[in-house]
Amino acid sequence: MGFRWVGPLLLASLMVALASLVLAYPSSLWAGDDYSLEYLAAACNAGARLNDLAFYRTGTMGYHPAVAFYVFSWLAAFAALGRGALGSDLTFFDRLIENAPLLFASFKICGILMTGLLVLAWRRSAARLAPAGVLLVALALYFVVTPQSVFRSVNPLTETFALAVNALFVLALVRLAQDPLRIWPYVLCGIATAFAYLLKVSFLYVWGALLAAFAYLALFGVRPLGVASVLRLLRGLLVFHIVSIGLIYAVGLTVIGPFYFAALRRLHWAIFTHGPGSEANASLADVLQSITISWDSGATALPVVMVVASSLLLAVAIATLRRQISPFAGAVAVGAAMAALASVAAVLTRYSETYVVGVAATVPLLFVAAWYAAGDRRARRLVVAIAVGVVLLSAWRAAPAIDDLFAAKVSASSKAAADAQAIAGIAGSDATLLYLYRAPMVGFGKGYVAYHCEVPHINDALLLADRNEQSSMARSVKEPNFVVVDKIYSSTEAEVRSGKNLDPINAVKTVWHDGDELIALDKVWLIRRARSPGG
C-alpha cells in the first residue's frame, strides 16, 4: 500500500471516529444550545421560501449573517425528510417538530460529512505549499488545539464553517502571492472576504490578513515598482473591494433580506466605531482571565498562535531585511500570521469557548507557512517535529475535555427528558403550561423555532391553535396553570420567589405570585399557579 493511501485512510478514520461519537453520546435537540433550535428555525424558513417561492425574513440571520449555516440547515433537513422539508403551513411546522430526533441525527451526520469535505477543500487549497504529509500534520492541529473543533464537527454552529473560510483564504492568499499584478487573485480575495463576512463579522480577519499580504508584496515583491506596476496593484485592490462589497450586498439583500441586513450593517458599524459593547473584555485582567479559561477548557490554540505567529512575523522581518526569503514565502507567512493573530484578538475581545474554533482554523496554515518559510530541509524537519509535539500535547489535553463536552450533553438531555415526564405527570393533559427561556424541552423549543422562523402564517396558525403547551416566545395563553422556569437563569428558590422577571429575554413579565407552589426538578423549576387545578 503506497503512501498516497494514508491521507484517505486517515480521513475515513476521522469520519468513523466522529460518527462513533454520535452513537456513543446520544443527545436531544431540545436540550442543546440555541444553535440546535436555530437549525430547525432555518430549515423551517428555507422550506417555506422554497415551497412558496416567496421571501420570508428570518431571525436566524438577524444576529450573525450565518448564511452558510442557514443553507446547511435546510440541506440537512432535506436529507432527513426529502420533500417533507418543504411547506409553509402549521402541518409542515408540526412535521418538523415531530421529526426532531430524525432531523437532529441528520444535522449531526451532515456536520460530520461537511467536516470531511472542508478538510479536503483546505488540503486542496494548500497543496501548492507543502507535501501531503506536512498538510496532514497541519490539519491534525485543527482538531486538537481546542476540544470544540471535534465537538462542533458533530454539533455544528457558525464557527464550524471556519475551516471553509480558511480554505478560501488560503486559496486567495496563495494566488495573490504568486501573481500580485493579475486580476484574478483579487477576485478570489473578494470572494473569500465576502464569504467570511456573510458567516460572521469576526471572520473579517481574512480581509485584514489579505491586505497585510498585499502590503508586503507591494513593498518587497513587485520589482521594478514603476508607475505601471503601481497602477496594476491599485486596480487589483479596487477589484478586491468591489467584488467583496458587491457579493456582500447581493447576498445580504436577497438571502438575509433588507430588514435584517440593514440591522446587521448598523450593528457592525457600531462595533467598528464604538467597540463590541458591555460584554466585551474591558481590561488586561479580563483578557488574561479569558486565556486562562481557554487553557483550563483543554484548548491550546491561543498560546500556540500567539507564540508561533509572533515568532513567524519576527523571522520574516529579519529574513526580508537580509533578503533571505522569497516574496511568495514572505507574503504567505505574513498573511497566515496576521490572520491567526487577528482571530485571537477577536476571541479575546469577547470570549467564548466556541469562538476558539475560529482560531483553531488558522493554525494549519500558520504551521504550513512556517514550514515553507523555513527553506532548508533541516529547518523544515524541526518545524515538523515541533508541530507533531504540539499535536501530541494538545491531543493529550483535549481528549478528556472532548469526553466531558459530549457527556454533559448526554446528561442534560437525560435529565431534561426525566423532568418533562415528571411535568406531564404533575400537570396532566388538560392543564396549560408556559415554558420560559431556555427550558430544555420541546415546550419551549417549538416556540423558539416559530419565533425565529418568522413565516407569518405559521406563527398566526400556531397562536390561533392556542395549544395547552406554549413557549414564552410564541404565546397566546396569558394565565397558564403551570410555568416552567430554567434553572440556569434562576438557580435558587429565593431568585424564583424574588419577584423578578423569570424570563430573561422576553418583555412580557412572568413573576412569582403569592400562593403559588414551587416544585423543584432537576433542570427546571415548575410553578403551579395558585388558581390552577390542585393548586
UniProtKB/TrEMBL annotation:
Phylogenetic lineage: Bacteria, Pseudomonadati, Pseudomonadota, Alphaproteobacteria, Hyphomicrobiales
Protein's name according to its UniProt entry: Dipeptide ABC transporter substrate-binding protein
Ranges annotated as spanning the membrane: 63-82, 102-122, 129-145, 157-176, 183-199, 205-225, 237-261, 301-321, 328-348, 354-374, 381-399
Keywords: Membrane, Transmembrane, Transmembrane helix
Superkingdom: Bacteria
Magnesium as UniProt keyword: no
